[in-house]
Amino acid sequence: MLSIQNLTKIYDGKVLALDNVSFEVNKGEFLAIIGLSGSGKSTLLRCINRLIEPTSGQIIWNNLSITTSSQEEMRFIRRKIGMVFQHFNLVSRSKVITNVLSGRLGYINPTLSLINRFPQSDVELAIKQLERVGIADQAYKRADELSGGQQQRVGVARAMMQDPEMILADEPVASLDPVLAHSIMQYLEKLNKEEGVTILCSLHFLDLVHEYADRAIALNQGKLMFDGVPTEIDDKKFKNIYGQEAKRVG
Amino acid sequence: MHKQKPLVRSIILGIVILIGMIIYGYGFNVTKVNFETTRSEKRLTQLSRIMRALAHPSIFVYEKEENKADVPIYLPCPKDSLPDYSPNKSGPYLVLTPKCAGPGETIYIEGYNLWPNTKGPINFVAFSGVNLTIGHLHTDANGYFNAKVQLPKRKPVDEAQMIRAISRRNIGNPRFSDVAISTWEKIIETVFLALLATTFGTMLAIPISFLAARNLMSDQKASLTNIAFSIISWPFGIIVGIRLSSLVDNILKKYFTDNNLVWNILGSVIGLTIIWFTIKTLFVSPTKDTNKNKTKYFHTISIILIALTSICTILICANLAITVGQSLIEPLGPIGFMGNFMSQLGDVINMIMPISVGLVTGGALSFVCGKISYHISNKMSPIMISITHTSSAIVAGTVIGAIIGNTIEWFYQLDNQIYTLIWPMIIGAIIGLIISVRTSPKYNMPIGYVSYYIVRTLLNATRSIEPLVMVIVFVVWVGIGPFAGSLALALHTIAALAKLYSEQVESIAPGPLEAVRATGANRLQTIVYAVIPQIIPPYISFTMYRWDINVRMSTIIGFAGGGGIGFLLQQNINLLDYRAASVQMLAIAIVVATMDYISAVIREKFV
Ligand SMILES: Nc1ncnc2c1ncn2[C@@H]1O[C@H](COP(=O)(O)OP(=O)(O)OP(=O)(O)O)[C@@H](O)[C@H]1O
Ligand SMILES: [Mg+2]
Q1: In this structure, which of A186, A232, A235, B212 has its CB flanked by the most CB atoms within 10 Å?
Q2: Which residues in chain B are contacts of A85 at CB distance < 8 A?
Q3: How many other C-beta atoms are found inside a 10 Å radius of the C-beta of residue B367?
Q4: Which tops the pLDDT comparison, A197 or B419?
Q5: CA distance linking residue B383 with residue B380, whole number of Å
């Protein structure tokens, strides 16, 4: 249902961040994206919801061409694609609940939302999502008063508010400790298993990939180096992805 | 090689010093630096006189009473004997030694029985009745004084003239002088002038600052066809909008004449209710898929209807405000200014209505045209696309040419259509053609960058003109007074604050911005939810800083006719009334220091 064809991104006419990448993602799949720092993982994820304009290539989602959509059409596409970030990207001076509610911005009437009016049903939904990630009691605190782990849960709750068909997670656990990392990954897994949300998640640790992902793709300097089940990554493929000097740990 | 280096360096240093000397030498020459004048005795006495006057601000005055003593004097001495004069020694009297003298000569005056410990002038009352102060007296505990005065050099007169000593004393309690009272009135005016200028300047600077922020504008792109369509539709929309609003106004004037209070009230109430209910039923409806065509048309039509009703209602409300406000001025008595405030607000709404309707219509039309052009171009054959591409660019170029030509005509009144209309249109069309040929219909032009640079340039240009200069134009427009001053200060505030604000917008964290954009939020929502929370503290801080500047500025804007205390100050300086000027300077110092302190406290609270 998501099909990426010959996607290329060149920054400022110089930096080749994605080089003719093609792959497909099925509905309900948990896809891990791996690769060294600078290999183009973030660029790939941001091209999918056009936070970054691709230089060439096509992205087709549910028979809609994302790459040629207008601004207004993008609004309807984006609101069905949740996004989770490495640095959480919460609005730190706003309340937790406002951050979660901002997940509904693609749905509600633009004019009314400008004066911070959300339908009561949305407010209730926001509290419910916060309950699901276990921090409903923090709803009226300022976002920057929360710990990193709590902030990422707010990030997940915000994505869940969008009632997404797909979630793009850009290294969602890279700045969390291993225990918190697993708890965040478990929320994503739950969404994937119970609600059938497609998940594209870039990850640094192979053990996480093995544990949570159905499938993995690997990038190296913008090129697609691997596409398959995580267990298929043997030593040779590993060196292809991470370079000849890289050593496997764990 | 190594040895030469220090030499080269010293030569360069020498040249730099030489150039510095020349620059400052020339500077002294141009600014006419002359330290000799600072030491000349005449100027020093003048200086000390002014400084002493400044140190005696005339804030308080006493009611005074006078006690006079006269003595006749002959100027010059008569040829025959001097007539006898014996003063009444029970009251105050004067004794001259000698009893007569020639013009310009010095005599001694003694006075008796005046009030003790008082001061006052000694006047020479000429035969013509002219009063000349020739000295000052200062009585002792017995009411006695002596003074040495020089008689005036006047034409000789045979008759007796008079020397009059006046001693003055205060009665009752001190009261505020007229100067102090008028200074108080003007300083209030000054503070409010600064307040209004800051408020309105800030209100306009905020939206403009978003246009001047690179990170918000850089991803704004549109195809040439799109841009061309909106360029064509803007002026058209503005004209239609202005016509529309004046049409509505005229129709309304027939039925809701200024005096018909009942109709006005009824009209505003009904209008407001209609708007309220339509908005409620239309927008509060839960998340429907607005992409369906039926709801879309329904939406469009109702939005147009709401817009029309709003125009009517706002105009009626404005009329109501004017009528009610005017009639309230009298009955409200001391707070009658609230009535005036109300009617002025109504008047402002009346005034800006055609322009805002014009702008809104222009914006809406260009939005719709952009949409249409986008949808058409999705369905057209490639040839049709390039034809639209080229022709729309040519028409847009022509429109811009016509606008520029008209502007030139307005300024220079060339009165020659060939130069001010035909040629600009042809040139515009050619430029449009060239651009359209050089770009592909699919290419997205960085329209955001273009508007960013235009706004930036305009802001910089406006900012570089001091409010003291701007006020001259406004004085011509709205007359001397604080209104002109507020307008000038507000304009400068807009330019200065928009720049400061936009730099704050540029320095916000990009993460939350992209997160909010990723949820499907539109541009305005992104600004409200991701940008504004981040910029509130610096905005408050800059606004307070600007308020500071505006208070300072408003104290001197009166120098150029902009109202406020500066007007009084300048007047008194021109009249050489330094004691009065001193009161105004004192007031300025107090106000500026107080505002400084308050703004520092507020800034600390928020940042
Ligand atoms: N805005 C940008 N402008 C120019 N070059 C960029 C920009 N963003 C990323 N790049 C470059 O594109 C390449 C891919 O970057 P990207 O952020 O996608 O890598 P990544 O795989 O996400 O790395 P990391 O694991 O460190 O997050 C890098 O070489 C980077 O320097
Ligand atoms: Mg990254």
Answers
A1: B212
A2: 511, 514-515
A3: 14
A4: A197
A5: 8
Strand (E) or helix (H) holding B327: helix B293-332
Sheet holding B145-150, edge to edge: B93-97, B106-112, B145-150
Q: Is the confidence at residue B295, as pLDDT, over 70?
A: no
CATH of domain B177-220+451-607: 1.10.3720.10
pTM > 0.80: no
Give A-chain residues touching B374 at CB under 8 angstroms.
70
Q: For residue A24, give every residue at least 6 positions away whose Cβ sits within 8 Å of its Cβ, in sequence order, or none.
A: A2, A3, A4
User: Number of CB pairs < 8 Å for A and B?
Assistant: 102
The Cα A203–Cα B154 span in angstroms is 107
Task: Judge whether residue B1 has pLDDT over 60.
Answer: no
**Helix H or strand E encompassing A14:** none
CA distance B41 to B437: 78
Residue B170's pLDDT is 86
Identify the DSSP state of B81: P
- The CATH number of domain B64-174 is 2.60.120: no
Contacts of B27 (CB under 8 A, 6+ apart): B33
Helices within B132-213 (DSSP H only): 178-211
What whole-number distance in Å separates Cα of residue A124 and Cα of residue B148? Answer: 97
List the structure tokens of B516: 């909010």
- Where b means 16+ CB within 10 Å and e means fewer, A13-33 reads eeeebbbebebebeebbbbbb
A133 and A187 in contact (C-beta within 8 Å)? yes
Does the A2-242 domain belong in CATH 3.90.1150.10?
A: no
DSSP-assigned beta bridge partners for residue A224 = A219
A56 backbone dihedrals φ, ψ, rounded to 5°: -155, 170
User: B287: pLDDT confidence band, cut at 50, 70 and 90?
Assistant: very low
HEC letters along B428-450:
HHHHHHHHHHHCCCCCEECHHHH
Residue A43 is predicted with a pLDDT of: 95
* Chain Cα centroid distance, residue A199: 7
How far is CA B95 from each of CA B105, B145, B152, B274, rounded to the nearest angstrom? 16, 10, 18, 93
The DSSP bridge partners found for residue A223 are A220
A105 to chain B: which residues are within 8 Å by CB? 516, 519-522, 525, 529
According to DSSP H, which parts of chain A are helical? 41-48, 71-78, 96-101, 110-113, 120-132, 148-161, 178-195, 206-212, 235-242
Q: For residue A37, report the distance from its CA to the centre of ligand 2, in Å.
A: 7
Q: Judge whether B409 and B422 are in contact, CB under 8 Å.
A: no
Identify whether the C-beta of residue B96 lies closer than 8 Å to the C-beta of residue B218.
no
Neighbouring C-alpha atoms within 13 Å toward the C-beta of B471: 28
pLDDT bracket for residue B455 (50, 70, 90): very high
- Using alpha carbons, list the distances in angstroms from residue B515 to A103, A197, B357: 9, 19, 35
- Asked if A35 and A220 count as a contact pair (C-beta separation under 8 A), the reply is yes
Residues 6+ apart with CB under 8 A from B438: none
* pLDDT at B44 exceeding the cut of 60: yes
Average pLDDT of chain B to the nearest whole number: 86
Which atom of ligand 1 is least distant from the CA of A41? 21
| Ligand whose nearest atom lies closest to the CA of A204 | 1
Nearest chain B Cα distance for residue A112, angstroms = 7
Q: Per DSSP, what are the bridge partners of residue B164?
A: B70, B123
**Token code pair at residue A224:** 């697609």
SS3 B427: helix
Contact B467, B474 (CB under 8 A): no
With vertex at residue A239, the alpha carbon angle to CA A237 and CA A241, rounded to the nearest 5 degrees, is 70
